[in-house]
Amino acid sequence: MTDLMNMQPLTAWDAVLSGHDCEVIGSDGTAIPMDVRRWMGLSDAADHALLVDRCTGPTLDVGCGVGRVTQALAARDIRALGIDISPEAVRMARERGADAVHRNIFDEVPEEGSWREALLADGNIGIGGDPVRLLRRLRRLMRPDGAVIVEVDGPGTGVVHDIIRLRVAGRLTESFAWTWVGVDAVAELAAEAGLAVGEIRRHDGRCVARLMPRAAGKETA
Asked: What's the CA dihedral at 128, 59, 159, 122 to 10 degrees?
């Protein structure tokens, strides 16, 4: 039975939730370590400085995982809903006390058009491999004066599209599309989605951009 189980397809969330160290394997074979322990733990000072404390109203946590940030928002009495495609991750988020639903962000989302902020933490702007499509979708989910808070990579990254897999304990997941976006490239992508950079904040080596409807945005360094 064990051998049969090991032959079953390994999903990306199987890899992340396994408790083992994970690597991102690019299409060229390059391996990049993943900080799984941070994702699975409690929100830290950087999470609060860059994400939690920047939210002022009802917040949609896209790709919430096990609810690290959703839980922290709820502890501040911010109405927060986590969304994730992994039923196991959503179950774990709910066990933490976070409000979360098993949903694809491109499917119907509760309270569409009423969210004050939408979060793309931990590089989740890469979801689906098409950041502009994702940002346009979030713009439709927000209030007219809403904002998308996006965690991006550092300067020099640009926009990198790839078909990747995760590797854990010698096993590989299925392939899926992902995109990395650097702070130097986020303004151009935002503009394509009808948004503009309102501010950029950095803390402990991490970087977050706040994207506003274009007429309200003002880019800062």
From this structure: -90
Q: Give per-residue pLDDT as tens, 6-65.
A: 445 678 877 777 767 899 999 999 999 988 888 888 999 999 999 999 999 999 999 999
Residue 39 inside a domain? The answer is yes
In a domain, 3, yes or no: no
CATH code where residue 131 lies: 3.40.50.150
Q: Which residues of 55-64 are buried (b: 16+ CB within 10 A; e: fewer)?
A: beebbbbbbb
Spacing of C-alpha 32 from chain mean position: 18
Name the nearest CA neighbour of 71 among 49, 50, 90.
90
Whether residue 4 is contained in a domain is answered as no
Q: For residue range 152-195, what is the model confidence (pLDDT) as tens digits?
A: 999 999 999 999 999 988 889 999 999 999 999 999 999 999 99
pTM: 0.90
Domain count, the chain: 1
* Tokens, residue 106: 């491109």
Residue 72 domain boundaries: 10-216
Residue among 160, 186, 132, 189 nearest 199 (CA)? 186
In a domain? residue 168: yes
